[in-house]
Amino acid sequence: MCGFAGVVVWDERFRVSRETLEEMSARVAHRGPDGQGLYLSPDAAITPDRPQVGLVHRRLAILDLDPRANQPFTDGQGCWIVFNGEIYNFRDLRGELSKLVPEYRWRTSGDTEVLLAAYRVWGEKCVEHLNGMFAFAVWDGPARSLFLARDRMGQKPLYLAEPYCASRIPAIAFASELNALLAVPWFHADVQPEALAEYLRWGYIGNEATIYRSAEKLAAGMWRRFGGEAGESGDYYFHPNQAAPERPDAASEARELVRTAVRRQLVSDVPLGCFLSGGVDSSVIAAAARAAAPEGRVLTFSIGFDDPRYDETEYAARVARHLGTEHRAFTVRPDAMLDLPKLAAVYGEPFGDSSALPTHYLSRETRRHVKVALSGDGGDELFGGYDRYRAMRLDRRLRKLPYRLRGALAGIAPNSLSGAHPKSAGARIGRFLRTVDQPAPRRYASYLRLFDDTDISRLADGGLPFWPDNVESNFESLSKALDPIQAALATDRVTYLSDDLLTKLDRASMLHALEVRSPFMDHELVQFAAGLTTDQLLRGGPKRMLREAFAQDLPAWVFKRKKMGFAVPIGEWFRGELRPMLRDNLFAADSFASGHFNRQVVARVVEEHEQRQVDHSQRLYALLMLELWWRTTLPL
Question: How much is the average pLDDT of 402-428?
Fold first, then answer.
């Protein structure tokens, strides 16, 4: 796990200096404290046939700790690679490549050299051979082209930018984190208004867009090539909703696929552990890790808070005792005033998922003991763990009730407008009843929104353009072949999963140079889950497949207890210790909100929350993180 950045310049006007590359490297330094490297092509006049190439890398040493494996890494034949992530099947690939190219002499024992050799043998199709989480860039000297690729599910990030220019692409800059691109002299950091509206909708910016006009994400499961004879090309090589062939015994297949994924991801030359909350997903991963190392140590880690509503350490300890793991639990006293600006900066653009804060604390404490941790992230999106999936199933029954009765029930159900927390059972029931008559795509999107489009228009005085609704459009397209529950999970796999959940996990953990691996994101397991029927997912309760597959490994209460989620009492903090921070940031004369939003609308949202008239906790968190991004990132 590492961080990298680089530039390729085909036009003399956009030449970059060594100092620029060093600044790009410094901005991803937290991702790799174990080593650094820089390659800059020989100084010469830049032409389309002789571009300037600069690559930088910060290393977190996990496999092959020898300095010979440091990056940028070259094969000595004009190809250079910078790489972030892990290729779990690299040993098998090495054996296969050795047969295909028997004269090749390996210089290292890790996965970076294998990855570069795979590119040299298979070209762009190398990604189809990889099992892992990765983002990488190869400068192919003989072909005079830059090749970029990102893993199938989007676990590892890769951003790219080019200058504003009417001619063919004159330069490309790329990096593991968006902030590194700000060091490039020709990068324009002007905010994209459609992306701002997207952020206010969901709390993240989806698809390939970023907050900046001049930058984009390389999409999950995609490769792109720049330069060379083709000029520019690219393609998707994986889709998370492409189902694997149907299996006769789904529970046994799920068990085997999970255990295989965990076994693959235990490869490491440094200490490794597992996050453990005591919930279904993390407990399943810990059980599979224990089975893969019956005689060895399995380390598990959990985090708790003084507020019992957000503390799962008791459940984690019970699972750890059952499995026989070596368990460590941490109780932390959050210092949000200090930690929120750090988080705002590391995401590089506004990011409004408040569970990033507990993920940050868990990663920080775990990193004191290990360099690598396995997590249960992705289990909900694969196996139907969220209440909103069950809500999509219940609507058919409720539509049979008379309209007036549905309206009456909606009117008496508690909701965020009456001060109930938006994630409370009452608020969820009320939202469900109020939206039951809407088309399924719009109803599902309503479960996920922070601000609806009308609220955004009021907030911004109608001054923000909108992209088409990403969640609605994906749901509508997917529902042509899937029932509403399957369409909901499939929508999350192409939107929320990569753009929110995995983004949150990567930045919050890599802020502390902790590599977190998510076995549920193994592409074979993803394709298996994409083929499950609604009955296989939800019959008898959520996560039927995991319940049946791991019933023999875990106590029954693990599968029966209420899902808590991974959260902090941010709403209470905004009425107490964070009230001054929130107000000072939002209402400052030079704040982002003062320059872009209607001050009266912002003030009303703050006051309604403080007076417990409406619970705006998640909206306020999103507004605060937008403000902190503006203050901590752009002045860099």
Answer: 56
Task: Classify residue 480 by burial, with Cβ atoms within 10 Å: 0-12, 13-18, 19+.
Answer: exposed
- Distance separating alpha carbons of residues 488 and 389, to the nearest angstrom: 7
CA separation for the pair 60, 217 (Å, rounded): 23
Picking from 541, 493, 549, 545, the residue whose alpha carbon sits closest to that of residue 521 is: 493
Q: Which two tokens stand for residue 522?
A: 């193994």
Any idea which of 13-17, 324-328, 426-430 has the lowest mean pLDDT?
A: 426-430
CA atoms within 13 A on the CB side of 343: 32
User: What pLDDT shows up at residue 636?
Assistant: 43
Q: Which is it for strands 299-304 and 35-40: parallel, antiparallel or unpaired?
A: unpaired
Return the number of other C-beta atoms located less than 10 Å from residue 364's C-beta.
18
Per-residue pLDDT at 407? 57
CA–CA dist 364, 366 (Å, integer): 6
Beta strands in 324-379 (DSSP E): 326-331, 372-374
Helix, strand, or coil (residue 451): coil
| DSSP codes joined into one string, 263-292 | HHHT--SS-EEEE--SSHHHHHHHHHHHHH
Q: Strands, E, within 423-502: which ranges?
A: none
SS (H, E, C) 459-478: HCCCCCCCCCCHHHHHHHHH
309: exposed, middle or buried (Cβ count in 10 Å: 0-12, 13-18, 19+): exposed
97 SS3 class: helix
pLDDT at 535 over 90: yes
3-state secondary structure of 81: strand
Residue 326 confidence (pLDDT) above 50: yes
Supply 246's token pair. Answer: 């149907």
| Closest listed residue to residue 303, CA positions, set 357, 356, 362, 363 | 362
What number is the average pLDDT over the span 600-624? Answer: 96
Distance spanning both ends of the chain, measured CA to CA: 25
Confidence bin at 633 (pLDDT 50/70/90): confident
Dump pLDDT digits (tens) for 99-139: 999 999 999 999 999 999 999 999 999 999 999 999 999 99
User: In which order are the strands placed within the sheet that holds 222-227?
Assistant: 73-74, 79-87, 132-140, 145-150, 222-227, 231-236
Cis peptide before 350 (omega within 30 of 0): no
For 572, residues 6+ apart whose C-beta sits below 8 A from its C-beta are none
CB of 7 closer than 8 Å to CB of 162: no
Residue 491: name the closest of 417, 539, 440 by CA.
440
Distance CA 311, CA 323 (A): 20
Average pLDDT, the chain: 91
403: confidence class by pLDDT, cuts 50, 70, 90: low
Amino acid at 232: E
**Distances from the Cα of 317 to the Cαs of 215, 278, 279, in angstroms?**
44, 7, 11
Distance CA 353, CA 624 (A): 11
Q: Residues for the chain: how many in total?
A: 636
pTM of the predicted protein model: 0.93
| 186-241 residue pLDDT tens | 999 999 999 999 999 999 999 899 999 999 999 999 999 998 776 788 999 999 99
